[in-house]
Amino acid sequence: MGPHQKARKIRTRRAVSPVIATVILVAIAITIAVAVSYWMGDLAGQCTQFEKVEIQSATCSVNEGNWTIELKLKNTGTKESTLISLFINEEKVDVYDAADREYMFASVWATNMTQTETITCSDSICILVYIDPTRAGSTLTSGTMITMKIHSSSGVNYPKTIKLV
Fold first, then answer.
1. 53-163 CATH
2. Does the model's pTM come out above 0.90?
């Protein structure tokens, strides 16, 4: 093969057409964009999780002379919530021994809440609070409004005002 034939053969070779090159570049760009959007979506999902506990109901009843307050809570947030303490009128409520059937409290009031109460997403729990009127003194009587506040490990407070019956 002579030098002219080699030159002609090289000139007859064709490159990828501009249309096909454009299609390939667009396909690569779309693939990268989809991968980045999945990654960003996952990252944004992790950063935008939030805690939100709703007190769906709070009822007060009298049982053997003691007030029993039943709080029904639901986690409506996007992450697990851990409740660590309960307050009545800004005073901490003691965790009471569930084995104690006589409801003999160490203080004015007690709750069946454990040291920490964890609520997973969209789950509900019920917390009972017991108030002994003989130990509460004259500050709490029938018809008194009390403020209950549940405190979570992330520092969020969930208050509820309840009227004693």
1. 2.60.40.10
2. no
